[in-house]
Amino acid sequence: MNPSSWKEARNLFEETKRITGFSKGVTVIVAPPAIYLRELGELDRPRRVFLAAQHVHFERSGSFTGETSLPQIKEAKAVYAIIGHAERRRVGETNDDVRQKVAASLAGTVTPILCIGEGSRNPNGEHFAVVKEQLLAGFGGVAAGKITKVLVAYEPVWAIGAPEAMQPRDMHEMSIFIHKTLVEAFGAVGHRVSVLYGGAVDASNARAIFDEGEVQGFLVGRVSIDAEAFTELLRVIAE
Ligand code: PGA
Fold it and tell me: What is the pTM of this model?
């Protein structure tokens, strides 16, 4: 439900478009609440700014009160969809739902941003098993030839909304693990899947996570709805 009003969404979108213009080489995917997608989609935007839905249903139509379909978000000009965000999983979205949504997105030519991430960590390293299960389930309906069309957003749930992000070296380890898991399942092409990091990203930690974490981008929450902080973040990433 962020941003919380149309006025705020429109202002943030205008700011985001403006600062993306100065951030050479950076692609920005804006994921507003579905109710704002269509009007934002009608506004002009630079080529490096895209729209995404925060949540979609896997069926193309039917009686699913309150849901939004892939054809509907496409009609509103969204070409990406966030799938399996921790906040959706918390209210009941399962690995099987996620699998169907990723497959439906690809079939509908919408790029899925598949969110995965463990709830907590302990010294036994059980989080790797959780991540592997979510990852393989998410890719369960994807043909080997299409796997590079999925963006993986690794977001440890304990870092979302937290004061601090994960350590860059831990992200590096996780990035290797994600690629290794995909290579085992799909062959060498697994190396080429893009991995994003999410969870307390801001201008102060982005550089280190980007340089050392082996990530191709970020999924940004709080900082994305603060025009000043987001400007700073884009500046760091552009550098
Ligand atoms: P945060 O949120 O950047 O505020 O931690 C991340 C997210 O919403 O996925």
Answer: 0.97
